[in-house]
Amino acid sequence: MSSKVIPWYKRQKYGSQVKSDLAYQHSTKRVISQQTQRKSTCKSATQVQAQATEAMAEPAYTIPVFRQRTTEVTEETEEYQRVSTKVEKGLAAIQEELQRMKIATKAQVDSLAMEKEVKEMMYKKVDLDEIPRLPDFMVALRPHTVWEKTPVKLFCTVLGNPRPIVKWYKGGVPVDPLSAPGKYKIENKYGVHSLIISRCVVSDTAEYSAVASNAYGTATSTAAVTVRRAAGAGWSSQIGLVPHLTDIHPTKLEVTLVDCFPVTFGVEGESASLLCSMVVVPDLPNLPPVVQWYRDDKPLKPSHLAEMSVGGGVARLVLPHLAKDDEGLYTVRIYSKDGTAEHCAYLFVSDATAPVAGAPGAPMSVKAYDINSDYVLVAWKPPNTVNEAAITGYFVDRCEVGSDTWVQCNDAPVKVCKYPVHGLKVGHCYHFRVRAVNSAGISRPSRKSEKVTALDPAENERLQVIKREGKYDIVIRNDDLEGVPSAPGQVVATRNTKSSVFVQWDAPKHTQGLMGYYIDGRIVGTKEWFPCNHKPFKHNRFVVHGLTPGESYVFRVQAVNVFGLSDESQESSPIEVESALATPSTPYGICMLSCDGSSMTVAWKSPKRCGGSKINAYYVDKRDADTLIWKEVNLSAILDRVCTVDNLTEGTFYEFKVQAANVAGVGVPSAPSLPMKCEAWNMEQPGPAYDLTFSEVRSHSLVLVWKAPVYTGASAVSGYFVDMAKKGSSEFVTLNQDAITQRYLQVTDLEEGESYVFRVRAVNAHGIGKPSMVTEAVCARPPPGTKEIVAGVDEETGDIFLSLEASDISTTSEFVWSKNYKAIGECPRIAITTKGRNSKLSFINPDKDDLGRYSVVVTDTDGVSASHTLTEDALNTMLELSHAIRNPIVPLKHGLNYEVLEKGHVRFWAQAVKISPSVSYRFVVNDKEVTSGEGHKMSHDVATGVIQMIVDNFTRASEGTYTVQIHDGKAKAQSSLVLVGDVFLAALKEAEFQRREYVRKQGAHFSEYLSFTVTEDCTVMLACKLANMKKETTFHWYKEDEEIVPETPPNVMSGACALPIPLFSRKDQGVYKAVIGDERGKDTSTFDISGQVFDDIINAIAKIAGESASDLVIQCTPEGIRLQCYMNYYTEEMKTVWKHKESKIASSEKMRIGGTAEMAWMQICDPSDKEKGLYTIEIYDGVKTHSRTFDLSGQAYTDAYEEYLRLKAAAFAEKNRGRVMGGLPDVVTIMEQKSLSLTCTVWGEPTPEVTWFKNEQEVASNEHTKITFDGGKFASLVINQVTPEDSGKYSINVRNKYGGEFVEITVSVYRHGEQIPEAKLGQPKMATPSVTTGLPKSPAPSSKTPTPSKSQTPALSMKSPTPASTAKSPTPAPKSPTPAPKSPTPAPKSPTPAPKSPTPALKSPTPAPQSPTPTPKSPGFKSPTPLAKSPTPSPKSPTPTPAPKSPTPSPARSIKSPTPPRFMKSPTPPRK
Fold it and tell me: How far apart are CA 300 and CA 311, in angstroms?
């Protein structure tokens, strides 16, 4: 991009010009001229300038001016005549020739008089040219005192022969303008030397001196500069102290554009900022320069859509809400002392993402015309449609100012780009917007229009709208009847820059009403078009920006009017994006390499821009430093950048300038070099190195390369020192302590983003020579898109190569490869190929001689370069890979292997890393090739690389060696598998098993064989799963070949069967078997519960039991203290350990260990104090130990011990008390006149007393009723010849000092001939067939005592020792009076005890509840802890209960002693 400065004297001319193309980025000139004389011949300003045309491209394209070399000699007077014709034009021409500075002069009024004086002296100087003269200041420096932030100019004039060289110093330090760009400016015009300091600061206060020197001496002029700061912080007060500054007009400022905005790309809805940085002299905050912004040559005004600001050396335009209306060519113009400085660049605004995929872009440029009180005509421009469907119409919306509500104005889409909106309110203000519609949907709304007020103008001004049937419609004139425009004509695309193309086209036949054009582009080889602009462009030429360098594009154009878009034009011819041809830019860096007194050898650096064509020539001019006449050095082209200039005068100062040429012509000459004295070099040290260049610039490193000095001194160059300094600093640091022999150095440890300068000093045996010219500053930052060299091996040829893909390239770029930074020429060991952006260096038969550092530089780019060090290890690795590629094999992931499939088939397979669809292979078995067919199936899968062969019938004959041979293109592979011996037998066994399995699964079978699980209630479940079941399928369980019939029949259709084994223990060991079968066959599953399986089941039970175990509790018994632990289930097979004080307890007479299904217990028999302590039960489940503890000590032990003593005493009393051992019935039925004998066995220690009662009255012994008690063991009551009066309730009371027992017998006497009562359950059978009437037993309360786990002594059945034959007595016993009981038992509630029957009592079918607590015992029990065999437990009181008057007899009741032992309630919970 470029900027230009228009001088004031040319402003009128430029102001009248009209730009012909608004898409250009920059305004510049194309100069067209012809040069027929020597290029050194001076020409007038009118001959130098050619016709100028406006252009849009970045760099100006200058039609080449081919120079013709002649031998004519031009008189010196021509130069003076040209200078004297017009000072203003002469100054402009000299400024363009000398360093191409600004066109306008910046000298002030007082310098004009000085220039006039110098000019007169120069005329006189002609006569004195031959007289040597020391430098002499004709006008010396003058001191200055200035205010802060104002400029100061120091100037002087000096004479001398030869012309002196002037250098400026500040406080003895040389002034370097490059150290602070824009700060210092050094000029030399007509012998007037000046130093301009811009924007002085206090630190600029110093003593400045100008030192003039030539071959005959030196002169110095010194002056002081004082910079003062005004009192106060406000600039107003400072300005007030400088009265002459108040008259400065903004247009009197000096403005130089430094960095300007480029071509910018934005998106709708986003923001964009255009910036221009500048240097303003003087820079006054309250007096900024005048800046004007334009879009498409129309001035912009500050608004909420365009925010403008100037200050701090920056002019800024911010577009906060982009719309396609903002697209266009933006220009910034700054009015300054020297004219108008301006810059322009295009802003592209693309469509935002559509709300619906495929919807068109938003319309633009919505404006209101023909404004009236009742309607407004709204017009707009259509959007570009490239890949979207055609637009079918538009919707127009309105919104009142101050409201956010938009109202749609038209019900149906309007097809033209204007619409009359009616129904408006008079005096109200409105905004309008438009939305486009196509088949995919509706677009985003356009930017709203400016505010429009509905007012009523004259009726005759309504030009475009008429009223029809109460509604407004658009007037269509004859000129508008043509509809959409015709397609544009031929489209031509030409080269512009490396990222843009210049497109021109012919306008359509009819251009009336044309809004503009849309340009579309497409990459050659693709079908997708893209829009180049998003707003109709009015001219028929446009620059398309943002293209990819090196790509080829075609373009098409569409015209736009109010009716829409025309047809597409024909496509342009393909064009590759590359820069247009131009002459090269100026060479630079001219330096002297050697001098012998009559000739000088000079060198220079290549131009930074070659102009799109390779530089093919250089031309050098020279002149004496004290003259203005340039003379050509060479008539023929110089190809190298080193030139030896002969025929020079020793002791004279010379200046040189160089021009570069290409096919486009000769470029602009370089700035004159510094004056160089022609003086023979006789020093012994070497001259300066030259042509210092940078490559491989990265964030923290770079490589510096240079050429050897031309002048070597008295001996050969032995090495080099490299010095570095930061930009703006004169303090150089030597980077290498010892001299290096190579002519390159990699500089490391740089600061990213910092700029550095370098110089090189050569060394020989006599010392260090002159330093080279200091390089231009280089920034430690890699070029955008930098890539490194890639080392690899070609996959097809196997060649080892180094490759670089350039991030930037031009048509003239070349890839220059070097080894150890020496260019590689024609070499039979290396081949270099370049294609597009890629360059490849291939090695031919590489070996150790090829090791080293390889670098490549891409010419005519912004420093694209890279390097790679080829090491021995890397080369060996690539050689191995190269050998593998040139001698290819098919790499295998897996060699040949086998796999047995479900039907007993065997699959032989191998897997390659990669195979192609054209792969071929074969299998060889025992040296015989196998073909795919019956019994063998071969296949492969390209995606996975698997090659396989399936053998259907794998038998003993299949033993042997299997081999697969693979061919894939040139690559081969082979893999073998030896299948013999045990390996083969294992494979055969597996194949036969799979074959049987397949047959088995054809019928009902087990999909999962038997396994066990344990439920939460510790029930072991043997489970299996079934498959392929039918209703007819049967299922059977077996244990040790004996069938098990479960309570719930198995349901085979459910697919699962289970056999529960509750209360699992060792008795459940054995082999279980499940068998299913039907007509298709049967299947069997066995499960052996023994050994480890049994242990696993026990462990599983122990896990559940351990987790459910309760805390230990105490249960006292007559034998001792018992600790109990309740759990879901307990069996002695569980690994249960009892511990006392961490010592394991073994079961013994003292410590008894046992348990029930509900609990585990440990009983301490006859406890003593040494049994106190902590007791623990541990249940181990194979993985985890579950522990419960109880501390049996202290009060817990005392209470338990007391309870134990009490229970022990109670048990002893229970054991020795008086009791009836058996023999008495409960009910006796007898016929009158028969004898009744009630006999029983009694026991007690000491011998008990026996007393008989009738109806609670003691019976005395007499002839009718005889009572006997023999041997303290047998007690009897005999009633002779019973009568009905003998009926009643008889009882016997057996008692000693420990207690006794009271037993009742009900006696019924019936008469002869009466019906004998029927016997009932629980009644004794009749002893005789005589009919008796029995009294039923009275109901008794049920026992609530919990059942004990086990009875220590088995209970005996309740049987009568006396046979029922005693009932044969024909004589009924007489009635006896009821005796009073002798025991202290309270009187019975019933007056008549029930008579007893001689019939023995029946055993109860219902088991008695068990309890560890001793209970009263009925007759016939020998255990001290009896079990009640009767379904109705005995009452707790010896008081007899009166029998109800029921014909059903009740069994005899055993009534305990009136002083029974105290009972303790058992803590045992009921079983779950």
Answer: 18
